[in-house]
Design goal:
By secondary structure, the chain is an alpha+beta fold. It has 7 helices and 29 strands. Strand 7 and strand 8 form a beta hairpin. InterPro entries: PDZ, PDZ_sf, PH-like_dom_sf, Syntrophin, Syntrophin_4th.
Length: 540
C-alpha cells in the first residue's frame, strides 16, 4: 500500500510542487510541415521565456526607394567567364516555381545585390514563366542574349525537397550540370548563346536603386502560458517522427514543427516544456494568493485522456488536470478565473482517488508496466503505443487513463498526487462512511490518529477498533462487500470483519490514502524510494 511518498509536509502551507527548472532561450532551424501538401518549409524558431516565435526568410528593402520588395526586376549582363552566375531548381512539373538555388560569389547575379537564393523567377525578358517547366526556363535563360532582365519574388515557403541552402553565395565553379533536372541545379554560370564576343561590363547595383537583404522575419508568435504540446497525430496514438505541435491557450497552433534529428526534436521538446511548466508554476503561485491555506493549488497541467470510441477505437483528447485543496479536477480548458473552478467536467475528493503509473519508456525498444496497486483487480488494455501513461481510479470502479509527453512530467504528476493526497488526509483527519452488515446500519471511520473504528449508526456504540498496523490483509467481491483481516494484539489471532458499502471503491481508496499518509509520516525516505517515475526519470 505504501508506494506514495512525501517529505516535510505542512498542511497549513501547501506550496505548488517545484522542480529545479529554469527558463530557457533557444534559436535554431527547423521545418514547418504541411500535412495537406505533405511539403516542409525551412523556418527558424526563437524561444524566449514566454513566447515561441516562428520566423520565415524574406527579402526586405533596407535603403533607397520605399517600394515593395515583393517583386524585383533585375538586369543581368552575361559575363564571358561565369555567364549569369547562378543555378536554378524547380519547375511546374513539380508544382513549384523555378527558383534560384545557387549564386556564385562575385559573378553577375551576386554583383547586383538584388538577387537571393530562394528567389522565384516570375519573368524572363518580359515573358511570364510562372507556369513554365524547368527545361523551358533553362532554355529561355540560356538563349536570352547578353543582357537578361528577370523579375523575381522571394519564395518564403520553398519546399524542403528543393534543398535550398540558407547561407551566402558559394564560390564560383567551372562546370555546369549535364542534362537539366528540376530537383538538381541547372548551371547558368557559363556562356549562353551570346552574339557579343567582347567582354560585357559586370552587373552592379545603380547608386539610387534600393538595396535589399534577406532576413528572418517573425510570422507567428505563440504565447506559452497554459500552452500544450503534442507529438501525436490528432486523436490517435500515432507518433510523429521527430516532430511535434505547440498549441496556445486560445487554440493558435505553430503547425507541425519537424526536426532533422531525434536529438534536436527532444532538445526542443524539453526546452519548450520547461518554459511552459515554469509559467504554469507562476500562474499557480498567483492563484494561490487568492486562496485560503486549505485550498491551495498543488499542481495543474495538460495531459491526453484516452477515450473509447463508438467503434471501440482509442481516441485521445486534451484535458487540463488540477490538484487543488481537497479535490482533483478535470477540465476541457484551463480555469483562468475563480468562477471557472466550478465549471470542471469532473471533481473528485482526493482521499478517494488512486494514482497509478502504467507505462514508461526505459529505452527505445522496451517499456515498463508498473503494477503497483495492491488489493483491487485491474484489467487495463495497454495495447496503445504511448509511453508515460498513468491512471486515476475513482469511485464506483471507474477510472481515467492519461498520457503525458515527457518522463519528467510523469514524475511531477506522481509526486504532486502524493503531496495533494497526504495534505488532504492530514487536513481532514478522518472520513466516515455508512455501511451495513447482516441488516444493521453501521458507520465505518478511517482516522489518521486512531486507525479503523466501526460503530452503530443509531446508538453510536463502538463495535470494534483497530490500529492501521493491525490490518494484515483484505479481500472483496469487486462490488460492495469487503473482508478486513485484523490481528488481535492480545491473542495474536486474525479477526475477520465483513462490511458492505454503497461505493466500495471509494472506501478502499480512502483506506489506501490514509495508510500511505501514515507510513509517509513515519518513514518518508522509504516512501520516496518507491517512486517509479522519479527512479527512471533519466534512464531514457
Amino acid at each position: 500500500l505504501a508506494y506514495l511518498g512525501t517529505t516535510g509536509l505542512n498542511p497549513e502551507r501547501a506550496e505548488p510542487h517545484e522542480l529545479c527548472m529554469y527558463f530557457r532561450t533557444k534559436t535554431g532551424i527547423a521545418l514547418l510541415y504541411d500535412e495537406v501538401s505533405e511539403n516542409a518549409y525551412d523556418i527558424r524558431l526563437k524561444l524566449t521565456k514566454e513566447v515561441l516565435t516562428i520566423q520565415k526568410q524574406d527579402v526586405v528593402c533596407v535603403s533607397g526607394s520605399d517600394h515593395s520588395a515583393n517583386h524585383r526586376t533585375v538586369t543581368l549582363r552575361r559575363q564571358p567567364v561565369g555567364g549569369l552566375g547562378l543555378s536554378i531548381k524547380g519547375g511546374a512539373e513539380h508544382k513549384v516555381p523555378v527558383v534560384i538555388s545557387k549564386m556564385f560569389k562575385d559573378q553577375a547575379a551576386d554583383q547586383t545585390g538584388m538577387l537571393f537564393i530562394g528567389d522565384a523567377i516570375i519573368q524572363v525578358n518580359g515573358i511570364n514563366v510562372e507556369s513554365a517547366t524547368h527545361e523551358e526556363v533553362v532554355h529561355l535563360l540560356r538563349n536570352a542574349g547578353d543582357e537578361v532582365t528577370i523579375t523575381v519574388q522571394y519564395l518564403r515557403e520553398a519546399p524542403s525537397f528543393l534543398k535550398l541552402p540558407l547561407g551566402s553565395p558559394g564560390p564560383s565553379s567551372d562546370h555546369s550540370s549535364g542534362a537539366s533536372s528540376p530537383l538538381f541545379d541547372s548551371g547558368l554560370h557559363l556562356n549562353g548563346n551570346s552574339t557579343n564576343t567582347a567582354p560585357s561590363s559586370p552587373s552592379s547595383p545603380i547608386a539610387n536603386e534600393p538595396k535589399y537583404e534577406k532576413r528572418w522575419l517573425d510570422t507567428l508568435s505563440v504565447p506559452l502560458s497554459m500552452a500544450r504540446i503534442s507529438r501525436y497525430k490528432a486523436g490517435t496514438d500515432k507518433l510523429r517522427s521527430n516532430a511535434f505541435e505547440v498549441l496556445a491557450l486560445d487554440g493558435v497552433s505553430t503547425g507541425i514543427l519537424q526536426f532533422y534529428t531525434a536529438q534536436e526534436s527532444a532538445d526542443w521538446l524539453r526546452a519548450i516544456s520547461t518554459n511552459i511548466s515554469d509559467l504554469t508554476l507562476q500562474n499557480m503561485k498567483m492563484a494561490n494568493k487568492c486562496c485560503s491555506p486549505s485550498d491551495q493549488v498543488i499542481h495543474m497541467g495538460w495531459v491526453h485522456e484516452r477515450l473509447e470510441g463508438t467503434d471501440s477505437s482509442q481516441l485521445y483528447k486534451f484535458k487540463f488536470l488540477a490538484l487543488k485543496g481537497s479535490s482533483f479536477y478535470i477540465f476541457s480548458t484551463p480555469p483562468v478565473s475563480t468562477l471557472d473552478w466550478v465549471r470542471a467536467e469532473k471533481i473528485y475528493n482526493l482521499c478517494e482517488v488512486l494514482f497509478k503509473i502504467h507505462k514508461l519508456w526505459l529505452a527505445d525498444d522496451c517499456w515498463l508496466q508498473a503494477n503497483l496497486y495492491l488489493g483491487i483487480h485491474q484489467d487495463f488494455d495497454l495495447e496503445d503505443h504511448r509511453p508515460y501513461c498513468f491512471s486515476v481510479m475513482v469511485g464506483h470502479g471507474k477510472s481515467h487513463y492519461f498520457n503525458v509527453e515527457l518522463c519528467s512530467e510523469l514524475a511531477v504528476w506522481e509526486k504532486s498526487f502524493q503531496r495533494a493526497i497526504f495534505l488532504e488526509v492530514q487536513r481532514t483527519g478522518s472520513k466516515t462512511y455508512m455501511c451495513s452488515w447482516q441488516g444493521d446500519t453501521l458507520c465505518f471511520t478511517v482516522d489518521f490518529a486512531l486507525g479503523f473504528t466501526c460503530f452503530d449508526s443509531k446508538t453510536k456504540n463502538v463495535l470494534w477498533r483497530f490500529k492501521f498496523s493491525q490490518l494484515k490483509g483484505s479481500s472483496d467481491d469487486g462490488k460492495t462487500r469487503v473482508k478486513l483481516l485484523f490481528q488481535n494484539l492480545d491473542t495474536k489471532q486474525i479477526e475477520t470483519k465483513e462490511l458492505e458499502f454503497q461505493d466500495l471503491t471509494a472506501v478502499l481508496h480512502c483506506i489506501h490514502s490514509f495508510i500511505a499518509a501514515k507510513v509517509a509520516s513515519v518513514d518518508p525516505v522509504f516512501i520516496d524510494s518507491q517512486s517509479i517515475a522519479r527512479k527512471y526519470m533519466y534512464s531514457n
